[in-house]
Design goal:
Largest sheet: none
Distance between the termini: 51 Å
Order of helices and strands: HHHH
Radius of gyration: 25 Å
Helix content: 55-70%
Shape: elongated
Length: 110
Amino acid sequence: MTEIDEVMRRVHSLEADHSIDGWPAVQMRDLVLMRHEIRDLRAQLRTQKAGVRAVIKAAVELVCAPAWAGVSDEDVALEQALRDAGFVTPNDVAQGREHSERPAGAEGST
C-alpha cells in the first residue's frame, strides 16, 4: 500500500465516523500529502490533455487536408470519430462524394 493509499484509508475512516459538517481530527501530514497528490495529479492531467490536444489537432489537419482520400476503413473511422466528436464538420466537397471516391487532385496519394 502506498503512502497516499494509507492516507486515503485513514480519511475514509474519519468520513465514516463524522458528519459532513463535523470536525474530525486530521493530522497535518495527511493534509499536506493529499495536497501534493492533487497537485501532482493535476500536473499529469495537464500533460495528458496537451498530448491529446496535439493528437486531435494532427488528426483534424490530416482529415481536412485537400489530399485526404478517406478510402480505407481506418480513414473512414477516423473521419467519422472526428465528426461525431464535433472536431470536423462536413463541407460541400465531402458531402458530395462517397468515402470510396477520391477527391479531385488526390490521384497517386495514399
